[in-house]
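Notes, Module 5: Reading structure tokens.

Key idea: the token line is not a picture. It is a compressed description, and you learn to read it the same way you learned to read a sequence, by spotting repeated patterns. We will look at two proteins. The first is printed below with its tokens.
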Amino acid sequence: MSELHFDPAAPLPSLPGHSSGGRLERILRSGRFAVTAELNPPDSADPRDVYDRALVLSEVCDAINATDASGANCHMSSVGICSLLTRAGYSVIMQISCRDRNRIAIQGDVLGAAAMGVQNILCLTGDGVQAGDQPEAKPVFDFDSTSLLNCIRGMRDDGKFLSGRKITVPPRVFLGGAANPFVPPYEHRATHIGKKIAAGAQFIQTQYCYDVPMLRTFMDKVRAQGLHEKAFFLIGVGPLPSSKTARWMRSNVPGVHIPDAVIERMEKSKNEKAEGKQLAIDLIQEIKEIEGVHGLHVMAYRQEEFVNDIIHASGVMKNRQPKRAPRPAEPVSVLA
């Protein structure tokens, strides 16, 4: 790779009312429809595996999520992926799971990440170790997602560790939380998100949405509590590769709700993969019209190559100039 010119330690521009200097916050606060996407972490120590996956997402995404051992399965770490991508100039969202590290390690990771140029952090409780491929691992859960939000907000706004010790240069970060509108008790989901927002969440990313009527009901409750005016809601979407995968996800992935009608649509199609792609486009076109929805969070496990086509076909990039996708041999500049 050629020499990288982005300096993550350089001072970030200060914008009134902004807690970070990042692209995602600027897009959302400007009223534009935002798009984020998950980067599927490699089981590899080769940085090119990260750059190759980021490259196909970068043109249509305002920030890329670096997952933190999701599903309690070990992959390249979130902080490692963030180190690679911020050095190359990508806008990233570092996910922090409370499952694997205590408050001392997490607060240190937050400072280190901010020093590398990470401007967005998604706070998660994390799946239990029994969900992963090493169930004998010892869980930590020193925090849950709400107390983690409180902690990082205090580091940023008060300039202090939980111990009360002063932080000389606080982290400037845009904080996020996760929501799952599609699991019971449905009537309390918005209230639960309200607690995360009160703890410091400025944006919310949801689990996959395959049931738009259920999402509308959730967003009705969000609006009734005024939560859409306190945080930005990005709804999770993703293409289904097959009806078999859809049935497996419904049975095995916590919080994923896929209606029978969606699976039947896949089964009746002549090309299930193409139908899954079209389904994602159709869902986005409905979701983007719901009041209080500020953007999308795309999760395309092993189908990253579809993200660009899906986003453009959905129309959410209308009147927006796509970012130039970087060539692998040069540094990228998508933070400006």
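Here is the second protein, with the sequence above and the tokens below, as before.
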Amino acid sequence: MKEIHLVALIPVYNHWKALHEIAEILHNHKIACIFIDDCSNENTKQHLKSVCENFKMATLVTRKENGGKGAAVMDGLTTANNLGYTHALQIDADAQHDLSAIPVFLQAMQNNPEHLIAGFPVYDSSAPKSRTIARRITNFWVAIETLSMSINDSMCGFRIYPVAKCCNLINNGFWTFRMGFDVEVFVRLHWLGVPFLFLPVNVFYYKDNVSNFRLFRDNLEISKLHTLLFFGMLFRIPMLLRRKICKK
């Protein structure tokens, strides 16, 4: 079995309050990390610089222009692949996800190195109704696009990727580079036959948190994405049905 080398990927766009905390938690777990600065403001850049100076296992990738979360994650995956990492733990920079789940995810990765280990969000009362409803709609369409009910959630940004398989997808091109990336990479990995494993992770919505989600722009992008994924599924129906039959 190929030896596993894990790195954490943290795409950053103007979120700076939790950067030191995230880096310290990863340091305590002896996990190297790659921060991808998606053309943040000067205040965030200074915090990123400080983090990378204080934590020697941290690497900074700086994008020349803002491309969105997906573009930042893809740059991180490419960098991880070039550095020889086999797996990448994606973490949101706003500390929305409970990082105490890391050891459970690491154990699952060790036991299932070919899987995408994905977070299944567990919300508390702080979760906006609009977000939970939007997730249900997206997960409904993902079930259609994959002809599968096995994907419990496709939007949680806390997950461990098999790096090489993701980089093969990047080389073939993506349709979206912003918030829809989390969904698209899920569907495309499913089309490739990558197995998934879902684990619960607590999700918090802090009152002072600044969201980079733009209601009109990102919902329009995700709607277009689902249209493209639906037609992509139509071309793959024979393969998807054959796979379902073989599993029986």
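Summary for the second protein:
- The chain is about 50% helix and 15% strand.
- The mean pLDDT is 90.
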